[in-house]
Sequence to fold (178 residues):
Amino acid sequence: MIFKGYFLNRKIQALLRTAKTRSHCYRALDDVRYVLILCEVSDRNVVEACVRTLKAMKKSVHICVYTQKRNDMQIWDYGYLLVEAKKDINIWGFPKKNIREQLNHLSADMLLDLTGDEYPVMRYLMLQHPATFKAGAKYASEKDWYDFSIVMKEGMHDIAFLFNQIINYLRMIRSKNL
Fold:
């Protein structure tokens, strides 16, 4: 299983290099209509609060949830795309083509990555998604994955704090031309 992480991480690095040349579109919160959230099933309660906040702002929300096994997943009140480790990831560590296609067909003015760094498959899905505005957490030891990031302390994975900071800063951005 050493190869599993090796090939996925090589592809992630290649996607990261090409991410710098893709078209970016920085947005104020008022300009965002569709939000795609990437998260882990263990963060369900916090993510549901984030979704309620976004829906109160009249945003359409799509969710991509990572889980180790299906029985960890409870039914959520809204639609989501489930990425199950044992079922939807091939032997090389890549998500199957149907998962990538389903995710890429979800329209998003903003992709909000609320996952940690434990599951590189979610990082891969985020990098290959065609969204033009991506936001998430940045740690000192990491590269710049996103168009807009909040710097977090090493080892700190506070989704509520991250979400609130991103929303607050995007509210402050008023101009379409930065």
Summary: The chain has a mean pLDDT of 87. The helical segments are 2-19, 44-56, 85-88, 97-104, 120-128, 159-172. The chain is about 35% helix and 20% strand.
